[in-house]
Design a protein that fits this description.
about 170 residues, alpha/beta, 7 helices, about 50% helix
Length: about 170
């Protein structure tokens, strides 16, 4: 399977991806495009810019389009597009949205990790809490628009892991 884990920042996507990797032998993990680009020498702005998110979007699209199987994606085009839309709501993202729809068709399961109530990350510890909340709400609204199998996971790490494993078994 090809599994994409999406959500706003600091909701536990990477932790969940790493936990799933332990339970799914033979799977590989594609870490966030941000970190892959940074490791390859891309220099991001201190404050995220439209250009930074477009670079991440294109990189994520290329990763997903490779067509490898048994892979877990920590972030994908959907959540990157949500960040892009929130930081610049006037930007016309229709072409990017259509690209995301095409690319995401190659994903077998979309796992949405929402901000929970009460939030598992105290407000004073969350980076850019307003951005985080807006992206979370937008992703919640968009998930069904992509027309692929999706689940929303909640609870502690083991509960989230078990929800994903139950869905794929």
């Amino acid at each position: 399977m090809r599994i994409a884990i999406v959500g706003a920042h600091r909701v536990g996507k990477s932790t969940l991806a790493e936990e799933l990797l332990v339970k799914l032998p033979g799977y590989t993990l594609e870490i966030e495009p941000y970190y892959q680009l940074e490791a390859s020498g891309y220099e991001f702005s201190e404050i995220p810019t439209v250009e930074d998110f477009i670079e991440q979007f294109n990189y994520s699209a290329r990763l997903i389009s490779k067509g490898e199987h048994n892979v877990i994606f920590d972030r994908c085009v959907i959540d990157i597009l949500a960040y892009l839309h929130v930081i610049d709501p006037g930007l016309n993202i229709q072409m990017l949205f259509e690209t995301a729809q095409t690319v995401i068709a190659g994903i077998d399961l979309l796992v949405f990790v929402p901000i929970e109530k009460p939030d598992l990350i105290p407000g004073h510890q969350a980076d850019l809490p307003k951005l985080r909340g807006l992206v979370n709400d937008l992703l919640h609204d968009w998930i069904e628009d992509f027309g692929i199998e999706a689940i929303e996971v909640r609870g502690n790490l083991l509960s989230r892991r078990d929800q994903v494993l139950a869905k794929i078994s």
